[in-house]
């Protein structure tokens, strides 16, 4: 297990990528399959995965409550990173479930394709971060 917050965030993000890849390989019908994992509580893969979602939500609340009780309010930068992560997760979630044909289809007649929108979002991010780095070097 990582020893620092940054290492832990990196490990969690890497684990998220692995889990998303595994989940995206499943079909709806797979979720009805039985699960031997104790957290499925004798149920299905659906029960297991939704239990994991609830479990993570509970622990997020635990950490937020402890930080609140300890008067450790996030700094502006911490809040900015948090909001950016939420926005990115929301954006990515809009693409989940599309097949490649849909992904390369226009969002509306004469408009960008979903792929172009995703490339644009990533490009704006990279351009902004390059600007941040360049501006910091000039100070």
- What Rg, in angstroms, do the CA atoms define? 19 Å
User: Per DSSP, what share of the residues sits in E-state strands of 2 or more residues?
Assistant: under 5%
Shape: flat
Class by SSE composition: mainly alpha
- Unreliable spans are none
What's the SSE pattern? HHHHH
Could you characterize what this model shows?
It is a single chain. It is flat, with a radius of gyration of 19 Å. 68% of the residues lie in helices and 0% in strands. It is an all-alpha fold and 139 residues long.
Keyword list:
139 residues; mainly alpha; 0% strand; 68% helix; 5 helices
List the helices and strands and how they pair.
Elements: H1 5-24, H2 45-69, H3 76-95, H4 100-103, H5 114-138
What's a concise summary of this model?
The chain is mainly α. The chain has helices spanning 5-24, 45-69, 76-95, 100-103, 114-138.
């Amino acid at each position: 297990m990582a020893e620092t917050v940054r290492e832990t965030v990196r490990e969690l993000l890497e684990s998220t990528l692995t889990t998303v890849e595994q989940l995206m390989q499943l079909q709806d019908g797979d979720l009805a399959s039985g699960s031997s994992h104790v957290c499925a509580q004798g149920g299905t893969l659906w029960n297991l995965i939704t239990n994991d979602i609830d479990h993570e939500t509970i622990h997020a609340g635990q950490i937020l409550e402890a930080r609140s009780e300890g008067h450790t309010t996030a700094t502006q930068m911490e809040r900015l990173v948090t909001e950016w992560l939420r926005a990115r997760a929301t954006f990515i979630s809009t693409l989940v479930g599309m097949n490649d044909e849909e992904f390369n289809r226009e969002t509306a007649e004469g408009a960008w394709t979903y792929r172009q929108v995703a490339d644009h979002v990533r490009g704006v991010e990279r351009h902004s971060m390059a600007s941040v780095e360049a501006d910091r070097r000039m100070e």
